[in-house]
Design brief:
- The protein is of the alpha/beta class and 316 residues long.
- The chain contains 11 helices and 12 strands.
- Helix 1 (15-26) packs across helix 11 and helix 8 (203-211) runs antiparallel to helix 9.
- The structure holds beta-D-ribofuranose and calcium ion.
- Residues 7-306 form the Inosine/uridine-preferring nucleoside hydrolase domain.
């Protein structure tokens, strides 16, 4: 049996999802069994195109399956100009118009079920988009839950407030699905804004990516330099730019990269009202509820960036 960790990456590229993909695909610790897409940063069609473009450019072949086109209950009403990833969802790099890679004929939760059912080792689900596919999967295949090792999710926030109180995009876009995850009993590591806004890259990092000399590094440098402009203009300029999604991958490759985390009870508000979609983290342990998530607050940033550069250097 391979000593690699079997994972499925569920994503909605997105610039930071692209970094998550490269990090996972270039890692010799992970065995990426499949990639599943979810409508999030952009609608399904663009997300599918972006994932396939990244894989083709990086010279990787994996099963890529389309998933949920909208949240379980809520509408998907984003327009092309929403968010900070540009019109395509991956503005900043011109991928070749022709891409021989095609989508799987299976849908995301079929692929998840197949992989999890047949894996000799429990599978880790890494989720870097809205939580819809994973929520659906847990509901549709409860018998397979024992063979899920962990859900490493870029979602939620404990203290860090970006725009609205306690809201993070992946968690709130499909709050009902997020709730299913928090109530599932599966071990959860939550890489929310608390940690992701403390791991900021600057141009020295994108120059290191370029210096790998790989096509992958070149693509990343171009996309991330553009993302810095888009993100910092749209959201907040903290003197660098976050790569949220890649944090949830790094923590699976090497859990010791996390330097501060705490187990606590987390719930998401699904009831209507101004806080619908907010993650409520019982960081003072006052609710009397058993912890259901490990909430990450800090990582070894230097090691994180080194890891990403290493992966970029290993791909085409
Ligand atoms: C999350 O939202 C998206 O814009 C990013 O890809 C990331 O997954 C951050 O809130
Ligand atoms: Ca994402």
């Amino acid at each position: 049996m391979s000593d690699r960790i079997p994972v499925i990456l569920d994503c909605d590229p997105g610039h930071d999802d692209m970094v998550a993909l490269v990090l996972a695909l270039g890692s010799d610790r992970l065995d990426v069994k499949a990639i599943t897409n979810v409508a999030g940063n952009k609608a399904m069609e663009k997300v599918n195109r972006n994932t396939l473009n990244i894989l083709n450019w990086c010279g990787v072949e994996k099963e890529v399956a389309a998933g949920a086109v909208r949240p379980l209950v809520r509408p998907y009403n984003r327009t092309d100009t929403d968010g900070c990833h540009g019109l395509t969802g991956l503005d900043g790099f011109d991928f070749p118009a022709d891409n021989p890679l095609k989508l799987s004929k299976r849908r995301a939760i079929e692929v998840m079920a197949d992989v999890v059912r047949h894996s000799p080792k429990p599978v880790t689900l890494i989720t870097t988009g809205p939580t819809t596919n994973v929520g659906l999967f847990l509901r549709a295949f409860p018998d397979l839950i024992p063979n899920i090792a962990r859900i490493s999710m870029m979602a939620g926030t404990c203290h860090f407030i970006l725009t609205e109180p306690f809201m993070e995009f992946n968690a709130y876009l499909d709050a009902e699905a997020t709730r299913i995850i928090f109530e599932s009993g599966v071990p959860i590591t939550m890489f929310g804004y608390d940690v992701t806004y403390s791991v900021l890259f600057r141009q020295d990092f994108t120059q290191r990516l370029l210096a790998t000399g790989t096509r992958t590094g070149l693509m990343m440098q171009k996309l991330l330099d553009e993302f810095t402009v888009l993100h910092n203009k749209r959201w907040i300029d903290l003197g660098g730019c976050p790569v949220h999604d890649a944090c949830a991958v790094a923590g699976v490759i090497d859990p010791t990269i996390v330097t501060r985390s705490e187990k606590m009870y987390v719930r998401i508000q699904t009831e209507p009202g101004p806080l619908s979609g907010a993650t409520i983290c019982d960081y003072q342990h006052r609710s009397g509820m058993e912890p259901n998530a490990e909430v990450v607050f800090a990582m070894d940033n230097q090691r994180f960036f080194d890891m990403v550069v290493e992966s970029a250097a290993k791909l085409k």
